[in-house]
Structures are given as C-alpha cells and as structure tokens.
Amino acid sequence: MQKFIWLVIFGMAFLDVTSQSEEDQVRLPLNDYLIGTSYNYPDQILNAFQDSAYLFLTMGGGESRIFTPEGYAKGFGRNTPGEFNGRHGEITRLDIYNDVAYAEIEILIPAIDARFIDLILLKRFPYGWKIIGKTATRYNLDKPYEGPIKENVIEGLRQPWSMAFINEEQVLITELAGELLHLNLSTKEKKVISGFPDDLFQPLLLDNSKYPEGTYPRDADGRTVRFNAGILEVILDPDFSQNALIYISYVSQREDTYALKVIRAKLEDNSLQEITTLLNPGPYVPGLFHFGGGMTFGNDGNLYITVGERLFYEGLKEGLAIAQDVTDERGKIYRIRPDGSIPDDNPDFGSNAVEGLYATGIRAAQGITRRPGSDEIWFSEHGTVQGDEVNLLVAGANYGWPNVTSGRYRTESYEPAEIDGSTYTDPVHYWQQTVAPTGLKFYSGSEFPEWEGNLIVPGLSRGSLWRLSLDGLQVKQVEELFVDDRVRTRKVAISPQGKIYLLTDEDDGKIIEVKR
Predict the structure, then answer these.
(1) pLDDT tens digits along 269-323
(2) What CA–CA distance (Å, rounded) separates 303 from 196?
(3) Over the range 340-368, which residues count as b (16 or more CB within 10 Å of their CB) and which as e?
(4) Cβ contacts of residue 256 below 8 Å, gap of 6+?
(5) Are strands 128-140 and 49-58 parallel, antiparallel or unpaired?
(6) Please, what is the Cα angle at 329 between 278 and 245, to 5 degrees?
(7) Phi/psi at 64 (nearest 5 deg)?
(8) Integer CA distances (angstroms), 249 to 176, 261, 276, 299, 407, in order
(9) Which residues contact 481 (CB under 8 A, 6 or more apart)?
(10) Sign of the CA dihedral with 124 first, then 127, 131, and 133 last
(11) CA atoms of 342 and 278, how far apart (whole Å)
(12) CA dist., res. 416 & res. 361, Å (int)
C-alpha cells in the first residue's frame, strides 16, 4: 500500500512538471534564486545552481569577485530565514535557445543605494534547468540614471578611421591622414607600424582646371586635399593569435589617379611583412571620394569588402550607372577567401561580370559588420542628399543605387538609365534626414545590458550617434544618443570585454569610451 502511495505521488509530480511550459521550467531555478536571496534561504539558492557554476560580481570601481554557489549562498545564512532582507528582484529578460537559456535580472537594494544587473546563463539537464553561470554588475542608486556619458581615452590622432583589438588594451588604429598605429589604451603609448606600401595616397594640391567638371568640388580649387583618401580599415584574421595576419584597405595612388586596394600582411615586431594584394578594384581615376573599404569576416571564414562607386556627382557617368554595371569593379560588395581567391559558391552575375562580386547597387558603403551569434552581415550606405541606409547583406542582391534611392541626387537633372527586369532590395532602415552613417557595430556587453543586440551607428553629418533596437530583421526603435554632445564620428568599436569606443573624424581625432 505504501509503495502504491509513493507511485501516485511521483506520478502527480511528474505530470505537474511535464504539464509546465518550457518557460515555466526555466523560471523555476530563477525563482529559487530570487526567493532564496530575498528571504535568506541558502538551500533554495543552492538548488538554483549547477554545482560547478561560477558567480562573478563587478563593483562600481571595477573590482571583481568570483564565488562558488556554496560561498555565495553561505552569505545569506547569516540573516533570519523567511525575513525579507530588502532585495527587490525582477526578471527583465528571458530567452530560450533549445537546451540553454539567457536571463537578465534587475536587483534593487535601496538600503545601500545599489542596483545590480544580473546576467544569467542556464542549461537544461536530465534533472531540470539549472543556472550554470551568473555575472552581476553594481551601480549606485544615489541619483537617477540619466543616460550614457563620454570619456576621452586618447587624443591627438589624425582622423582615426578604424580600430582592431589585439586584446582589451592593445589595438591597431588606422589614421586616414596619418599612419597605421599600434596603441595601448591604458598607457597611451603609440608605435608606428612600419613597412606600409609606398603607393599609399599622398595629399593633392588641387588644380580643378586639369579635371572634368565635377570631379572635385569647385570650392576646393587651390587647396591641398585628401577628402576620403588615406588608410581606411584594419581588421585581424580570425586566427590572428596563431598566424599574426592582418587585413588593411587603403587608397592606392598612380600619379594623380586613385583606386582602393586591400592587402594582407603578417604583423611582426610592429612591421608589415609578407604583404599580398587581395583586391584592387579599378580603374585608377581622378577623384577622392567614396572608396568604401569596409571589411568584415563572415561566419563562413570569407572576407567581405565594400567598394564605393567613386563619383561625387552622379551626372559624371552617362548611360548604365557604375554601381549597376557588373563589368565595372566599383559600386559593389565583394566576397573573397582570406588568400584572395574566389569562393565557388559566390552568386553568378553572368559570364562578363568581374570576379568576386557578392552584391551590386552600392554608392558609398563604409561600415560592414557581422551580427554576433548569426551568419547575418549588415552594412551602412551613404546617400547623397538624404538616402542614408542600413542594409542586410544578401547574396546576389542589388541595392538599387542610383536607380532606387530614398534621397535625392547631387546632379539635379540626373536620371539613371532604366534597367529592364531588375529587382532591388529594400533597406532594413533609412533616415528621412541626412546622417552619413559609417562604421556600425552590434553591441554585446555588460555595461548596457538593455542594449544587448542593438545596432550602434555613427553618423558624420551633425555628429549623430544612433541606437537601433531590433526584433529579428526589423528595426523596432531608433534613438539618437548624445543629442547635446554631438561629435563627427567615423567608427564604433566594441572591445573583447564589451566596452564601446567611438573614433572621431577630426584633425585632432579622439578615441572616446561610452560609459554608463
């Protein structure tokens, strides 16, 4: 009889668990954690965690501590069990991915003027869901949170264009108007990387009479100019720690004509060695605008490169537009292997198309980045007068320029040649005003947990900085940051630990950290 009763009890418990939704089951250890820490139940806290879990706590001054579940729970055994201790906890986010889950919890402790943001990782085991890792960051409650702030980290750079992290402190910096630098963000030490190719652009003393009307702006005549020319992007090879390879895009010069060039080199003792040219989309022509040069590695291990159409005025090209002509190397996005060879599964643009094409209809895309945890690649696109976009890269897509744009042309009388049967890909987002978006990045870090997965987009026009909140492939919210503290920004960079840095496009360029 006793055995029968136990079977009935077990069966009821089993039915109760199996009748719960997946989310309900994930919330069980989270509720154990919240109740145990608010009402001083060490055993309930321990029940929430897998035995081998680790807990990390970061204090306001940057001090970090590590706890085991036993050590953490023990601290709550000093108070009276069942008595509320003043911790107010709330689950603010819960995402479930098959056998793992991610949760965010906000803890308020008014008695000590503290606010904690807990980031929690859970895993499903045969015996139920358990917390396998937790990190908590403390913030003060002495005044209401008024939004992010800026803090200058480095000054005195010559139009910094991009930044690649060797580690949290060591970075490579490209200066449009200067050098390729090895820089320490903590000590501020700068070292010039030697061995750069000697075809790098040199500033031009402009005589407009030598060039077709519209090649350069009229008001630039007689000035020494560079416009968009210099050292552009630098990125590390995914296996940089093993092979020391880096990739650099820059403007290559032949007399007074120019083209984008992408090289690969080995970085040895702050010198470029074993330099190989991977891409050199021509032709070399006068004009110093819209080279593109954005680069990122995809999840597939291939290198994606943006190449601009190079025109300041659309009317300089009659007939089929450069960006729509698959026999012209400009105005495209390329996909190549790290050694410069062409992947076999690149889209087919026809027998006459240039090699390596992945997408067409590009005007002046500079920023390109991969979305963490996915195969998606996103890029920004400059319009002329308005027409600025954020796009999702799709194999074989035509993004429409100049035949389709949400903006206007610089050449007022310009009408692009019609192309029968063309299908154009719409942007994910575009602005009604001129933004001039550049080096965008997806945010992932603990400083701003509420921004997790958001797209941060800098703008050159008016020095704007934008945060795009996404729901899948849709932009659900757009916020302009620092509306009272704008600065012309070329690039957003995210450190390995999730810190946000801005590179300002100034003669006295800065690296700025965005902080809570």
Answers:
(1) 999 999 999 999 999 999 999 999 999 999 999 999 999 999 999 999 999 999 9
(2) 21
(3) eeeeeebeebeeebbebbbbbbbbbbbbb
(4) 204, 210, 286
(5) parallel
(6) 15
(7) -120, 145
(8) 11, 6, 12, 20, 28
(9) 147, 148, 465, 466, 467, 514
(10) negative
(11) 10
(12) 12
Helix segments in 62-212, DSSP class H: 69-74
Query: Which residues on neighbouring strands pair with residue 148, listed in sequence order?
Result: none
Q: What are phi and psi of 335, to 5 degrees?
A: -130, 115
Q: What counts of helices (H) and strands (E) characterise the chain? A: 5, 32
Residue carrying structure tokens 């809570």: 516
| The CATH classification of domain 18-140, taken from the options 3.60.15.10, 3.40.980.10, 3.40.720.10, 3.10.450.50 | 3.10.450.50
pLDDT tens string 144-178: 678 899 999 999 999 999 999 999 999 999 999 99
> What is the pTM for the complete model shown?
0.74
Measured at the alpha carbon of residue 429, what is the angle toward residues 375 and 145, in degrees to the nearest 5?
A: 90
Question: Please, what's the largest Cα pairwise distance for the chain?
Answer: 106
Pinpoint the residues of the chain covered by CATH 2.120.10.30: 149-515
Instruction: Give the type of residue at 8.
Output: V
Residue range(s) of every CATH 3.10.450.50 domain in the chain? 18-140
- Whole-number Cα distances in Å, 148 to 242, 368, 483, 516: 37, 24, 11, 5
Residue 303 carries which side chain, given as an amino acid letter? L
Which CATH number describes the domain made up of 149-515? 2.120.10.30
Helix (H) or strand (E) holding 115: strand 114-125
DSSP 226-291: -TT-SEEEEEE-TTHHHH-EEEEEEEEEETTEEEEEEEEEEEETTEEEEEEEEE-----BS--S--
